[in-house]
Structure formats: C-alpha cells, structure tokens
Amino acid sequence: MKEIALLAIARYGDLIQTTPLVRALRRAHPGARITAIVEDRFCGILPLLPGIDRTIVLNKQDIAWDIATGESPLAPYLKMDEFVRKLEEGSYDLLVNITCSRLSAFFASCVTSRRRTGISADETGERNIVTLWGQYIFSWFNDNIRKYNAINLVDIFTRLGEVPPDGCRVELVATEKGERFADDFLNRHGLKGQRLVGLQLGASEATRIWPAEHFARISDRLQRELGVRTILFGAPVEKHLAEQALAAMELPAVDAVGETGIEELYSLVGRCAALVSNDTGTMHFAAAAGVPAVMLCIGPAFFRCTGPYGEGHLALQPDLPCSPCPYSLVCADPVCRDTISPKAVFSACRMVLAGSGELGNADFAGVRVYRSSFAPDGYLTWDGLFNVDARDEEQVKRRETTWKGCFDGSAKRCGAPGDETLRTFWELTGQGIETTEAIIRAAREKPLPVDEIRRLGEKESAIEAEVKLMGYRHGPLAPVTEFLTLMRENITGEELERIARQTRALYETGRCLAALL
C-alpha cells in the first residue's frame, strides 16, 4: 500500500483522536504516504500531528464568506471546484473517511481509491457506508441509542482504517513555538518549579459547561489544601467565564484564557500535573501530553465514546436517570451542572495527584466515578470506581466485548441466550438465515421459480419488520436493530443470489450479537 488518504473534515478533538489511527497505519504500511484532507478552521493543529505527509485543505470559511456577502456569486463555486479537482487528482490505495456527514460522503466520492471505508456516496448520490465499523458508528448517532455505545471513538476510527488499536494514548508533538511560549508564561507568572492544575472553563456548547463559581471553589481548595497553583484555560470568546471565576475566588488563579493558540495551549497544558475539564478539545490535549484529566460529564457528554484517550483519566457522571442527555434535548433545568459538586471534583483531583487514599462513595455524593485504562486487546475501557451499579457495569462490559468480538471475529460461538427477549430475537434472526438460504438455493434453479421466490421474499420482509419492531419495544436491542438496518441499507448489487447472501450475513451478524449480549 503506497497512498493512503484520511478524510477528516472535523474539529480539533476529532483530529487528535485520529493520531492512533495514523500511528497504526504507519506501522502496518511503513512506506505509504498519508494525505490528510482537512478543513481550514482547524489547520492550526497540523504542526502538532505526527505522521501526516501531505494535506489538502478545504477553505470552508472563505467559501462561507463569499456566499454570505454575495459580492461575487461565482467565487464560492470556483473555490469548491478547485478543492474537488485536488481531490480528483490523486489516486489512493485506501481512503478512510472518519467524518460522518453527507458533505464528507460527497467528497469521498470524488476521491479515486481502490478501497474506502466510512461514508461515501454512490453514482446516484445515495450514501454508502462501507465496513461493519463504519455502519456501527452511524448506528449510534441516533440520540436514543448513543448511550449504549461502550467503545471509544478513537478505537472506532482505528478500526475504520482496518488496523487494530495498539493500547497507547493519542499523540501530539510539541513545537518550538509552543514550548517557548510555555516557558515564558511560567516565568512571567512566577510558576516555574510549581505544581500546576489546569481548569478548562468553557466548552463548544453551553449545555456542557460547569458553572464558573464551581471552578472558583475548586481552585481555592486546590491551592489552599494541596499547595498547587491553578491556571485557567479557554478560548477568547470564553473570557467572560474567566472573569466570573476570578471574581468568585479567594485565591486568584493565573488567567491564560484567550492567550494561547493551538501550539501554545498544548505546551502549556503539558506543564500541568492534572486538568479539570468540561467535555471539550483541551481535554484531548491533556490526554496527548500524558496529563491526567478529570472529565466533567455535563449535558450530552458520553465519556465512554469521546472521553480522554489514555490511561488514568477520571470521568465524573451525574447519578441522574437523564444523564447523559440526548444532543437534541433543550433542557429547561440542567440540574446535572450542580449535581457534580466542587467537593466531588476536589476528591477526583486528590486521586490523580496523590492517590485515592481513604476516599469512598461519600466523597462523590450524587456522582458516578470511572477511570480509564487499556484492555489486553488494546481498546480503551472504563472501570467504575465509586457509586456505580455492579449490574450496569457488567452489562456495559458485555456490550463492549460483544461488538468487538462480533466485528473482529474473536467471538466464540454461543447457543441460545438465557434472556427471554434476546432468545426470541436470536430465534427470529435464525428464521431470517433459513429464509435467505432458501432464496439462495432458489436463485440457482433453472428456470427461476418466481412464485417460490416471491413467497420467500414476503416471508423475509415480515421477519425484517418484526426485527425492527423488537428494537422499538426493547431499548437494549435498539442498537442492534439500528445497526442491522444500516447493514441492509448498504446491501449492493442487482443479482438475487448476491443480495440474498448479503442479507444472510446481516441475520448472522444479528444472531451473533443476540447470543453475546
């Protein structure tokens, strides 16, 4: 394999989360050239990304500005045409599209590639999601299903590249510019030689932000009781959060909000002993620097999916039936922001800075606490530490091993499951296998038994409908039925036997999942 393209029209965090994929591709194909297709808004992180040989940049901001101003109606079309022509110029052995959008599907369809994974578009413009892992990532975009996903996005990206995860954290390379800034910043503020804890105040959405007053309380306790100095991190538009936090503090923190670019932020975060963060990009900088992060899971923050990728991080999840909430939900009373108390966050900081000691469930009242580590197979996993339900933990671990085992081929054959609902589903998918096998046999007969095939087709349609209905009725089955629906959507070809074979594979996958769950 000589040419590999990575289509990542994504945010900073997503780009950081591709680094284990790039690392694994480098290991599997040491002589290959890797081209990253990225958006201009997030080019600032490119100097930090190791393993990228070449970039093609979508000037999306310029195009949006041309459309908004309308001064030259042809300008945005010409710029888009120029970008698409750059995509069409190359020829690749593998295209990995980690971006889950229709726009990225169009871009993927413009790239000449011998093999592609993730979303693309066919000749008619219909989306085509290639590989089981590609279909899996789309299946849990449904807000009601996302909570059942137990596999980190980094591992899914890596499997999209058809390489295994290696059990190592995300990776960035500090630049000389960033290191100079960090040294100067520490010297200017008298922080050289002191133990530092970073506080990331903002997030991309207001629903993910812990109150500034809470950050003030945790800052005071950290400085007073653990003898550390605290640094406030955030983008320029989050300066008001820093002002609110500083006004509520008894012991002032050092304010770095709005003072750092991407390179400077990474180097400065790397000088910290720990980071307390909302679910946002700075958390991934900490993971790449090997700095333990305390993730505050406010609103739609799914730590198992998008949490910091590395060992020893903590996730604090409100112990509420509605947490995490769907992305589409507009909450009139976001109680989760206060459910995570400053006391719980301070206890978590004590854990990462000095060990758990005598901490117990009471130190994290109202909060479930999880810690990250790498499983023997190289995937990231999270283990419950405080206030977690053992039965829930067992179910999560089972879902985690089920999907991986089914897709990676490591799952052992199982008989009928003991759970009544799963057994019914297992039997139903078994009927689907039998019916599609009958269609395959009929498709080989000469002359074609049209009436028999019509009868079998109607029977298979009834099985399909019942499979979907079971997903609507039973929440834990919803991810499976949604996934099978996507598998069916991406069945290709016109020959009856080929379609029947792909449909049989669909039912076999569903039966395997039911047996393992």
From TrEMBL:
InterPro entries: Glyco_trans_9, LPS_LOS_Heptosyltrfase. Pfam families: Glyco_transf_9. The keyword Heme does not apply. Keywords: Glycosyltransferase, Transferase. PANTHER family: ADP-HEPTOSE--LPS HEPTOSYLTRANSFERASE 2 (PTHR30160:SF7), TETRAACYLDISACCHARIDE 4'-KINASE-RELATED (PTHR30160). This is Glycosyltransferase family 9 protein. It comes from Geobacter anodireducens.
